[in-house]
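Quick note —
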Amino acid sequence: MNKLAVISAKIPDEVYKELALRIPEGERSNFIREAIIEKLEKTPRPDKILELEQKISKLEADLSEIKKYLAELEVLTYEKGKVNPHAFCIDEIDHKIVDYLLNYRGATTTELAEFIKTNRWFVLNRLRKIQRLSKKQLGKSIVEYYAGEKSGKKKAWWIREEFVEV
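Predicted structure written out below.
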Protein backbone atom coordinates (compact mmCIF):
# COMPACT_ATOMS: atom_id res chain seq x y z
CA MET A 1 0.00 0.00 0.00
CA ASN A 2 1.13 3.57 -0.73
CA LYS A 3 2.31 5.86 2.01
CA LEU A 4 -0.65 7.53 3.69
CA ALA A 5 -0.95 11.19 4.61
CA VAL A 6 -2.97 12.51 7.52
CA ILE A 7 -5.60 15.17 6.80
CA SER A 8 -8.17 16.86 8.96
CA ALA A 9 -11.51 18.17 7.79
CA LYS A 10 -14.25 20.15 9.43
CA ILE A 11 -17.69 18.75 8.71
CA PRO A 12 -21.12 19.77 9.98
CA ASP A 13 -22.14 18.21 13.29
CA GLU A 14 -25.16 16.52 11.67
CA VAL A 15 -22.91 14.80 9.10
CA TYR A 16 -20.55 13.60 11.86
CA LYS A 17 -23.44 12.19 13.89
CA GLU A 18 -24.73 10.35 10.80
CA LEU A 19 -21.23 8.99 10.10
CA ALA A 20 -20.86 7.84 13.72
CA LEU A 21 -24.28 6.19 13.57
CA ARG A 22 -23.74 4.33 10.29
CA ILE A 23 -20.01 3.49 10.27
CA PRO A 24 -18.31 1.58 13.12
CA GLU A 25 -15.43 3.38 14.86
CA GLY A 26 -12.58 1.28 13.39
CA GLU A 27 -13.78 1.61 9.78
CA ARG A 28 -14.43 5.37 9.54
CA SER A 29 -10.97 6.20 8.23
CA ASN A 30 -11.29 3.64 5.40
CA PHE A 31 -14.80 4.86 4.62
CA ILE A 32 -13.67 8.50 4.30
CA ARG A 33 -10.61 7.50 2.24
CA GLU A 34 -12.77 5.45 -0.18
CA ALA A 35 -15.33 8.27 -0.42
CA ILE A 36 -12.61 10.77 -1.37
CA ILE A 37 -11.09 8.37 -3.94
CA GLU A 38 -14.54 7.68 -5.45
CA LYS A 39 -15.29 11.41 -5.74
CA LEU A 40 -11.87 12.09 -7.31
CA GLU A 41 -12.45 9.39 -9.94
CA LYS A 42 -15.64 11.16 -11.03
CA THR A 43 -13.99 14.59 -11.23
CA PRO A 44 -12.12 15.28 -14.51
CA ARG A 45 -8.53 16.43 -14.33
CA PRO A 46 -7.97 20.05 -15.38
CA ASP A 47 -5.07 19.05 -17.66
CA LYS A 48 -7.36 16.62 -19.51
CA ILE A 49 -9.97 19.35 -20.03
CA LEU A 50 -7.29 21.72 -21.34
CA GLU A 51 -5.98 18.99 -23.63
CA LEU A 52 -9.50 18.36 -25.01
CA GLU A 53 -10.08 22.09 -25.56
CA GLN A 54 -6.81 22.32 -27.50
CA LYS A 55 -7.74 19.30 -29.63
CA ILE A 56 -11.15 20.82 -30.43
CA SER A 57 -9.55 24.14 -31.40
CA LYS A 58 -7.09 22.34 -33.67
CA LEU A 59 -9.92 20.36 -35.29
CA GLU A 60 -11.90 23.57 -35.91
CA ALA A 61 -8.86 25.23 -37.50
CA ASP A 62 -8.19 22.16 -39.66
CA LEU A 63 -11.83 22.03 -40.77
CA SER A 64 -11.75 25.73 -41.67
CA GLU A 65 -8.59 25.17 -43.69
CA ILE A 66 -10.13 22.18 -45.50
CA LYS A 67 -13.21 24.26 -46.35
CA LYS A 68 -10.95 27.01 -47.69
CA TYR A 69 -9.04 24.57 -49.93
CA LEU A 70 -12.26 22.96 -51.19
CA ALA A 71 -13.67 26.39 -52.00
CA GLU A 72 -10.48 27.28 -53.89
CA LEU A 73 -10.80 24.05 -55.86
CA GLU A 74 -14.47 24.88 -56.49
CA VAL A 75 -15.41 21.48 -55.00
CA LEU A 76 -17.41 23.10 -52.24
CA THR A 77 -20.19 24.86 -54.11
CA TYR A 78 -22.65 27.41 -52.89
CA GLU A 79 -26.12 27.54 -54.37
CA LYS A 80 -28.19 30.71 -54.52
CA GLY A 81 -30.25 31.18 -51.40
CA LYS A 82 -27.72 29.38 -49.19
CA VAL A 83 -25.97 32.30 -47.50
CA ASN A 84 -27.47 35.30 -45.79
CA PRO A 85 -24.88 38.13 -45.97
CA HIS A 86 -26.42 39.68 -42.85
CA ALA A 87 -25.21 36.64 -40.87
CA PHE A 88 -21.73 38.20 -40.85
CA CYS A 89 -22.90 41.56 -39.46
CA ILE A 90 -22.07 42.52 -35.90
CA ASP A 91 -24.34 45.54 -35.46
CA GLU A 92 -26.66 48.00 -37.21
CA ILE A 93 -23.79 49.71 -39.06
CA ASP A 94 -22.70 46.42 -40.64
CA HIS A 95 -26.31 45.76 -41.62
CA LYS A 96 -26.48 49.19 -43.32
CA ILE A 97 -23.25 48.47 -45.22
CA VAL A 98 -24.52 45.09 -46.41
CA ASP A 99 -27.93 46.56 -47.33
CA TYR A 100 -26.24 49.26 -49.42
CA LEU A 101 -24.02 46.69 -51.17
CA LEU A 102 -27.02 44.44 -51.82
CA ASN A 103 -29.00 47.35 -53.24
CA TYR A 104 -26.24 48.82 -55.42
CA ARG A 105 -24.11 45.62 -55.79
CA GLY A 106 -20.99 47.68 -55.05
CA ALA A 107 -19.72 50.89 -53.50
CA THR A 108 -16.58 52.78 -52.61
CA THR A 109 -15.72 53.33 -48.98
CA THR A 110 -16.38 57.04 -49.49
CA GLU A 111 -19.93 56.35 -50.77
CA LEU A 112 -20.60 54.02 -47.85
CA ALA A 113 -19.20 56.54 -45.35
CA GLU A 114 -21.48 59.28 -46.73
CA PHE A 115 -24.48 56.93 -46.59
CA ILE A 116 -23.78 55.91 -42.97
CA LYS A 117 -22.54 59.40 -41.99
CA THR A 118 -19.17 58.29 -40.61
CA ASN A 119 -15.57 58.30 -41.82
CA ARG A 120 -14.33 55.97 -44.55
CA TRP A 121 -11.65 54.33 -42.36
CA PHE A 122 -14.35 53.09 -40.01
CA VAL A 123 -16.27 51.68 -42.99
CA LEU A 124 -13.10 50.09 -44.36
CA ASN A 125 -12.42 48.34 -41.05
CA ARG A 126 -16.00 47.04 -40.93
CA LEU A 127 -15.78 45.75 -44.51
CA ARG A 128 -12.53 43.96 -43.68
CA LYS A 129 -14.15 42.35 -40.62
CA ILE A 130 -17.09 41.13 -42.71
CA GLN A 131 -14.63 39.86 -45.32
CA ARG A 132 -12.47 38.07 -42.75
CA LEU A 133 -15.39 36.52 -40.88
CA SER A 134 -17.13 35.27 -44.02
CA LYS A 135 -13.86 33.87 -45.40
CA LYS A 136 -13.24 32.01 -42.14
CA GLN A 137 -16.74 30.49 -42.12
CA LEU A 138 -17.29 29.88 -45.83
CA GLY A 139 -13.81 29.57 -47.27
CA LYS A 140 -14.56 32.56 -49.54
CA SER A 141 -15.51 36.08 -48.55
CA ILE A 142 -18.94 37.49 -49.40
CA VAL A 143 -17.48 40.96 -50.10
CA GLU A 144 -14.42 41.67 -52.20
CA TYR A 145 -12.38 44.72 -53.08
CA TYR A 146 -11.61 45.39 -56.72
CA ALA A 147 -9.15 48.19 -57.46
CA GLY A 148 -9.92 48.38 -61.19
CA GLU A 149 -13.02 49.77 -62.85
CA LYS A 150 -16.20 47.72 -62.64
CA SER A 151 -19.71 48.98 -63.43
CA GLY A 152 -18.45 52.55 -63.56
CA LYS A 153 -16.77 52.46 -60.14
CA LYS A 154 -13.05 52.38 -59.37
CA LYS A 155 -11.54 50.99 -56.18
CA ALA A 156 -14.84 49.69 -54.85
CA TRP A 157 -16.17 46.88 -52.67
CA TRP A 158 -18.50 44.37 -54.28
CA ILE A 159 -20.85 41.79 -52.85
CA ARG A 160 -20.26 38.36 -54.40
CA GLU A 161 -23.50 37.52 -56.13
CA GLU A 162 -22.99 33.75 -55.94
CA PHE A 163 -23.54 33.92 -52.15
CA VAL A 164 -26.44 36.33 -51.98
CA GLU A 165 -29.89 35.11 -50.97
CA VAL A 166 -32.58 36.00 -53.43
